[in-house]
Write a structure and sequence with these properties.
This protein is mainly alpha-helical. The chain is built from 22 helices and no strands. Helix 2 runs antiparallel to helix 3 and helix 16 packs antiparallel against helix 17. 37% of the residues are buried. It comes from Heliobacterium chlorum. InterPro entries: TPR-like_helical_dom_sf. This is Tetratricopeptide repeat protein.
Amino acid sequence: MHNQRREIAPRINSWSAIRRGVSAIYSGTGYGYVVVDKARMQKGRELHHKALSGDKEALRAAFDFFEQLYQEYPEDDVVAAYYADCLSLSSLFSQQTFAMFKNAVTASKLLDSSVNNQPDNHEIRMLRAYQSFRLPEGFFWRTMTAISDFEYLIEEYESGRTSLAEKQYHQLLFDLGCAYQRTQMTTEADHTWNRLLSLIPDSSYEKEIEKKRGLIPVEWEEKVNSLTAKEDLLQEGIRLHDLSVAGHSGAAKLAHQALSKAYELDPDDALIHAYLGSTNALTCLHGNDANALFFSAIYGLKTLTEALSKDPENPRIHLLRAYMNFSLPEVFFHTTETAIKEFLYLLDAYEKNPAILSPQEYWQMIDDLGVAYSRLDRDQEARQTWAKLADCPDRELASKRISSNME
């Protein structure tokens, strides 16, 4: 029996603003408000940290913990900030559009209030920075808030006014660059990323930055422009498509160009049609235009359905359709159930013919099927699916799920 969903809704003490004002008046005069027990607060921080990994049970526990604490200490800005962040995280799992927006907006207002009350509190600024950074820019327009907080925290570290770890400082620089890039501040993004690379050259950040920049090598464009055969164009289009899926923000447009040329040569080829639809959606994935994202996603889904009707047993078309439905926000598109059906179809087909998927694709699909079940609160099926990862040769993938979700 599936777990019944408990939609998280904010409970805000109406006296909160007044009591914070009183506490501000009394601060420094010996009448400061009651301080939360350190051990209790540390327990909440640990729950919150686990919730950030995507563990839904930890998120529910963290939300309940900080909701209760916020009711007891509504004047405590750190408590309010943690409560707000848990509320915002809960919106990512919501299947109701109104609840998702309401929780995210309420959380943003609470965090803004906490920062206004304590602008030099590094913990609060870190919470607001990443809450703002997580929200889709096309709907919430909070990236500039994240930039402001990232810049502040970086300056505090470089001035020696914070105990931030060096690893966290490096992550802040990377994420600040991503935030700049998201808002088309490419000069600032390049400057920030170059600072990071000068500090830790030849690091894992180098490849990630290359993907985020999305720069297209001249030879890639020359190759697409020189190709004339359908199979060559399809092969290069698939390569570029897969680079885009892996995070290269500029590859999708060139993939679309190659696949469009292939489609002109053979509009009846179902696989070309499918990859063209998937690539069309990817071209808007890295942008901030919500309308364009909706339009391209709907067009992509329609195109993949058409392609599948032409070649209903083609495993690659099923794979593309599975992951497009899986990648779309459930709260807007409600396509996770379709993704589950496609995953199950492919896993069944793999049992009959292992050649249709690489071992890496197979194990990743097991993991993603569990995620899809979990997204719909089908937690028992998720755990049963993730249990299969015990046989996965990728120990990192296996241990991540088994340790965090099989408890």
